[in-house]
Amino acid sequence: MPGFDPAAVADLFLEEARRLGVDYADARIQVYRYRLVVVENGVVKESSYTVSTGLGVRVVEGGYQGYASTTRLERSGVREALEEARRAARAVASAGGRRVELAGKPARGREASPYKVDPLSVDVSEAVEVALNTNKAAAEVEGAVNVVTRLGIQYDRRVVATTDGGLVDVEVRLVGLSHATTAKADGGQPEMVYDSKSMVAGWEFIRDGDWEAMAVEVSKLAAEASKAPVPKAGRYTVILEPEVVGLLLHEAFGHASEGDIVASGASVLRGRLGERVAPEYITIVDDGRHPQGYYVPFDDEASPKGETVVVDRGILKSHLTGRAEAAELGLPVTGNARVQSFRHPHLVRQTNFYLKPGDWRVEEMLEDTREGLLVTVKGARGGQTDPGQGTFTFNMGVSYIIERGEPRSPARGVSITGRILEVLNNIDAVGRDLRVSTSVFGGCGKGGQLVRVGDGGPHVRVRNLLVGGR
Amino acid sequence: MPLEGFPEWFDPERILRLAERESGGEAEIYATYSWRVAVDVKAGSVERAYRRAELAVGVRVAVDGRVGGAGGQASSMGDVEEIIRAAASIAKSSPRDPRWPGFNPTLGRGPEPPSVYDEEVATADASRLAGVLVEASKRVAEEGARVSEASAHALTEHEVYINSHGGPLDSRGTSFLAYLEAVSGEGSYYDYVDSTSLEGERLAELAPLIARRAREAGEARGLDEPLRGQLLLEPREAGELVSVLLEPALSAEAVIERRSPLAGRLGERVLSEHLTIVDDPGLPGRPSSRCFDAEGHPASRRVLFDSGILKAYLHTYYTSRILGQGGGPGNAVRRSLWSRPVPGGSNLVVEPSKTKGGIDDLIAEMERGVVATANIGMWMSRPESGRLTATITHGYLVEGGSIVRPVKGVSLMADVYEILGGGFIAASSQRECRGGVCSPALLVEGATLS
Fold it and tell me: pTM here?
């Protein structure tokens, strides 16, 4: 860990900002470490460690904003970054740019995510051993032709200071393991299945997990999927697993609810606050403190992040905002201004975006579905949305054809496509279960920045969903 | 002598010796010093500008086949020493890779690609970039649409590579990237330009097309029924297909690790005889052009598919030593400066047709099908099997050689080796370059559209 005190850099920043006499400035001082172990077919392909420490500043002058960053954390480096950001703000002014106002009052506080054993204090050989054993177990399953196991550990400390009184200090530890098997059964096609589990926690999460069992299950599923048919393209009644619901909501609804996209005019949700956008049994929230999600008690403007109800029993109640979007849209600050790292400018980002549970038991939902598809996330590549049109597409994992109320035969190559507002209105059953998850290996990409997020929900049933196939 | 573009204290040879001493083995140092100026536009006006400069350093060490890597941003030798200690510690704790051949011993430069550094990009300030976006935004407004988001980036990068066998090798390059999204009613559309030169005029020229397609998207709807017809991929879409499905399969590592459908197919006709694809690190004006790869090996042009016949894979030094066929090293790329090199393309070039005309001529040849002008989700396709999946967000329905109406939300599924093999019909006569791929439009059949 670095031999400097981020809080002392924050003090330096505040002194220099006052000396410079800018209208407003904020700083993000970040200490980031990331350990990655990758094992492929029994060989350690990568064991690496990322070190990143620096300062990002924003200056608002005359209503115009500019950003700069530096890795030089002594007084002269801090001063130069402030001056550079001020020059950038002046360039925006001279280009006839837009003025910003900042709503709300930033917070003060210090938070650390819970953990028992600091994961970076554990010798790397232990991480390598877990990854090797997991990989070996997966490789022994018949039909497995390629097995890749990754183990990731992240430490991220951020101190955010603002010239209008905000000062927060947040430490997050995130650990996880993922495994992917490509299998090819006799007469089948190569099929890759992937599973991943991450948690805001310490080494105990890795130490206590049954990773070999997870990897074996992945390999067996890949071998099974390799022989499975691709379903015929068309419209289906579909039951979505919680992880699929999370992906869908995050991509197709969450992005459209981000205040910067709304303000730019590129969201299907613009101008629809107070309208019914879904049935009354649909409630969607963004919560920075969900225990199974990523940990965002404050955003990168030092605003507190609690639970934001975006859709309340079918009515669109809120967009997600940072301080600038809140001022522009006349909405409360929801604490969603985030950055990938100290080098990046703020964007409105989701934290843990999920659907609240309903009242259906999963078994009831299945029994009530005579024909359809059960869509799962294992093997899913992810999803993408066009928030301007509300169109989404997801490449899903191994799925099961439902016949007479039971998931019977597997299907591979399932992709789902639709327009989110239509799909929300075609949900006719919401499960009473709830799963929310995050990942140490990926996150959400937007505007060239990647941030950690969580998402999830209960099982849901959607009628008339377009499934791509043969 | 300090290296051009790097801070004076940064001495790669000294850092290499420190890494060798700390680890007791061989080492490599890969570093960049870069600065970026960027401007963002929101809802038609400039919202913010930013500048960042940073030195990033990657260190990998190997001791008897035990390899460790570490890296990150550095502002002093103290930071570099922390990185070296971390890399050495990892190597000591790692199991031996029985196939480890050492770091690349053949360091050198291939032909110098022309026009990879542009002083105008290197000296661009926020006002210059803002001017580019303001001009393009005006053109969009003249066409009855408005800009929702736009951004322009000017990046200058100096890089240096050295390992225990030789070096240092250094180079410099610039890149300019400008992106613009327009909205009109319920429709939106985006496009971008990328180059080593500040090509603001190209963005302004694209603006009317972006505006027109945003307007058309507002009137578009899905297909009335699934169809297994023809598909015309515009150059940007065709380039993404090559990048997402062919490039990973051409990786010699994917071949070795049994996750490529091209394994064991060298010398076979895999694609249509009308398709030739080369990797060309010497293209003028492309940000991916280079004279040495990410492990210091000379970069050179390589034919991958010659009239459809698979001629070579993409190799690093590591994969070339293990596989021993399908070409030699020269195609190392990295996820980060401190991650291991993996095979990847520089500029993958799909040769355009010498006998066909432009996109309009290909449309005139179509009986019934869809022209894809934008998609979401193609990146989720499966290179291990060749299964292409995407949703066409913007396109046109074509019947009898004429565009009937705009379409959107069209689900696409195909086997890439079928549509580029027996299903391939024609390429257009002109190619466009974006990212690391240059491709003409490709007309194929055999895809399922629903």
Answer: 0.92
